[in-house]
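Kindly review these tokens for lecture notes.

. . .
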Amino acid sequence: MKQIIFFDGDGTLWYPEKTAYQQLPHWIYKDPKTSMDPLKHLILTPHAKATLTELRAQEIQVVLLSTHPHPPDEAARILQAKIRHFQLEGYFDEVHATRAYEASKGEFMVEILKRRKIPKDGALMVGDTYNWDYKSAKDQGIDALLMESVYQKQHPQGRGVRRTITGLKEILDYI
């Protein structure tokens, strides 16, 4: 039984409505048509709230880890704005804007597990990118699931991952 689930934000809990899982979600922050108000163009992943609610009901700790290239304080404000926008307040035990390098999420996971005294085999990472989410967790010895997407299947190592899900509600089969 998993004691803690780590979630990525962009591409996992929410994504650009226009492209869904066809391309990496970060384009929305760079495109002049969407960059001024990206929240207007993001939608919550189907079953996100129901899955988070079920995890809370099972007393599984839930942590949001979302990579941001901004300075830590600004990144934290941006992430909190997304949580408010999607009305996800109260669903997470911790929320962290991780740093803009691939191993950052794995480092955050290890620190959180140590602080909470949870063994690595009691944790699961759920994300949409091979390097930043899946590999970052696996390199630390933490179990991971990868959301299926066009971009995941185009990644040389990502297309070989067998622990994939097509929707968030499938997480419940792995806890």
Remarks:
- The mean pLDDT is 93.
- The chain has one domain: 4-56+74-145.
- The first strand starts at residue 4 and ends at 7.
